[in-house]
Amino acid sequence: MTKTALVTGGARGIGRACALALADAGFDVALVDLLEVEMAATARDIEARGRRALTFQADVSDFARAHAIVEQVGATWKQLDVLLNNAGAANPKPILEITEAEFDRTIAINLKSCFNFIHAAAPVMLEQDAGGRIISISSINALSGGVTSAVSKHAYAAAKAGILGLTRSLAKELGPKVAVNAICPGIIATDLLRNLLDDRKEQLTAGIAMGRVGTPEDVASIVRYLATEAHMFMTGQHFVVDGFQWSC
């Protein structure tokens, strides 16, 4: 039986790479993003791999919309095997400069979105004989408190740390039918970091043991493993994908 996955923030960057890796692994993939044109391009690439694709233009912080999307995926494909919470946004402002609205928005996009889609998807997975897998993209900022490059600061670090707490608590509640894990990427070459990498790539690379910044495909390889390993005895964990970023 073909398995299915839902990827938030699936239009480009890490989300796109993960969606294509899942398609290569035999999954039909539903995409959620605000970027309609880029999302349509990713959907075409999924279909070029012989898999089915669904697209939903949506604000992931909308609780009701998340439930409606999961319901439509279930009605169309009759199952949901993997949920990848990837959607996110950074706000690099210092604590005395960020507004309440900006802080709330950063938390909503990065953390509340995970709650929204897990709240919708978990009942579906618990009812399935095969259970399911929930994977959420956190960040090394959750562990370090934010890198000195000022890619992100307090709101982002707090939201990404919240994902780790949510992952651990949900692993206890949803096991044994649903495995819940998180991934903490380091500096990854995406549109979000394009300007920073253009200006400081050599400096940033010098602080990474592997001698390079990461790629979306580096993260996608871990997502594919967590989604496909049949007898995986891992849940409630976070996996750091940063090339051992010892200084930044």
UniProtKB/TrEMBL annotation:
<keyword id="KW-0560">Oxidoreductase</keyword>
<dbReference type="InterPro" id="IPR036291">
    <property type="entry name" value="NAD(P)-bd_dom_sf"/>
</dbReference>
<comment type="similarity">
    <text>Belongs to the short-chain dehydrogenases/reductases (SDR) family.</text>
</comment>
<dbReference type="GO" id="GO:0004316">
    <property type="term" value="F:3-oxoacyl-[acyl-carrier-protein] reductase (NADPH) activity"/>
</dbReference>
<dbReference type="InterPro" id="IPR057326">
    <property type="entry name" value="KR_dom"/>
</dbReference>
<protein>
    <submittedName>
        <fullName>3-oxoacyl-[acyl-carrier-protein] reductase FabG</fullName>
        <ecNumber>1.1.1.100</ecNumber>
    </submittedName>
</protein>
<dbReference type="InterPro" id="IPR002347">
    <property type="entry name" value="SDR_fam"/>
</dbReference>
<dbReference type="Pfam" id="PF13561">
    <property type="entry name" value="adh_short_C2"/>
</dbReference>
<feature type="domain" description="Ketoreductase">
    <location>
        <begin position="3"/>
        <end position="186"/>
    </location>
</feature>
<dbReference type="InterPro" id="IPR020904">
    <property type="entry name" value="Sc_DH/Rdtase_CS"/>
</dbReference>
